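Journal club prep — side note

Before the paper discussion, L.F. wants everyone to see what a predicted structure for a comparable chain looks like in token form. Sequence:
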Amino acid sequence: MANTITEVLPKLLAQGLMALRQNAVMPRLVNRSYSALAAQKGNVINVPIPSAIAADDVAPSVTLIANNDSAPTVAQVTLDFWKKASFHLSDSDMASADAGMIPMQASEAIKSLANAVDSYILGKHTGFYGAAGTAGTTPFNASLTVAGTARKLLNKQLAPMGNRYAVLDPDAETNLLLNTNILQADQSGDQAGIIEGSIGRKLGFDWFMDQNITTFTPGTGWVTGWALSTTSGAVGDTTLNLINATASGTILIGDLFTVAGGTQQYVVTANATASATVARTISFYPGLVSAAASGAITVVGTAYTVNLAFHRDAIAWASRPLGDIPAAGNMFSSAVDPISGIALRLEVSRQNKQTTFEYDILGGANVVRREYGVKILG
């Protein structure tokens, strides 16, 4: 007897979740605690961020003392990621699926969704301001210095010590893997490097390779000679007026710079357009750690590969399947992969004498703790 679509549906969905596990790295490493709050496309999830609390001396008194004020904030995660991938099955294809052989088209459709999720989360790097390494130079070439610098920056930015991850492109991972301190058992403490080609946990990070690591190109408006205009910046300011006599072009969210007299790194938080002879206001994070007088601005102006080192709470990812929409003859099946945290919905419809299977994913991500992430430039 021929198999019905109802019997094949759970098997295709289960095999789809397996494909997602193999191809989505970032969803497994970031904070997924807010997925239960996700619902419909466009919804906004408020992630609470506690404010710092100072420790006070104890001074017994008959008079009640005033409580310290706290000002917790929120970071918002918008469910703006909604992607689909579809394929078609003939009767013979469905029989093969029942035997455990998911069609090649189905596997490719699911992989494309997994890669899209991965790239989407990786793209949130524009919220990080800490950076180690040199733009345009693949890190870990016979040295672990860049890894140590990334760790140092996270420590200075008060990121928790546990649940730290590093995600590298294939070139950077190869350099790191071939380092003798990683490769040789007497240096690394295990044989995973030489036997499995696995870096594992080293220097306080769990290391992963991801082919979806992106390249970031800074805005075209950054040319040499940028300086503060006549208005200086005070400690805590998050905007500066800059000027350059020959500048023109874009200033982009994610651009990195330092101010003369200090090593603190800052990241641009709003796009702007450079214009010659006109002072341009740029917004950035964090606030100035020291007052800035009229002086030069040093910018990371070269395109670079964005490897990442971060604590899991740096980025929040939420994903839930959309509710079933009544449609004549259509069937729905949904499941959440406990490993990747991706919610996958499969809709089956009949049209034009064929059965259409369509997977879709709804989710959203955002950087919620900028201090908990660092770029490793490549």
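L.F.'s comment for the group: The chain has a mean pLDDT of 80. Keep this in mind when we get to the figures.
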